[in-house]
Amino acid sequence: MVLVGIMTILLGVGSAWLIVSFEFPGQRILSWALVLPLAMPGYIIAYVYTDLLEFAGPVQTLLRDITGWQAGDYAFPPIRSLGGAALMLSLVLYPYVYLLTRTSFQRQSVALVEATRVLGVSPTQAFLRVALPCARPAIAGGVALALMETIADYGVADYFGVSTLTAGIFRTWLGMGEPVAAAQIAAVLFLFAGALVVLERLNRQGTVANPLGRDVAAARIVLPPLKSIAALLACALPVTFGFLLPAFVLIRYAINVGDPLLSSQFLAFAGNSLTVAAAAALIATGIALFLAYAERRDASMQNQLLIRLATLGYALPGAMIAIGILALAGTLDTKLAIFMRDTLGMEPRLLLTGTIAGLLFAYVARFLTAAFNSTQAGLEKIHGTLDDAARMLGAGPGRVLTAIHLPLLRGPLLAGFLLVFIDVMKELPATLLLRPFNFETLATRTYRLASDERLAEASTAALLIVALGLIPTIMLSVSIARSTFRR
Question: ABC transmembrane type-1 domain: from which residue to which, for each copy (predicted)?
Answer without folding.
Answer: 1-201, 270-476
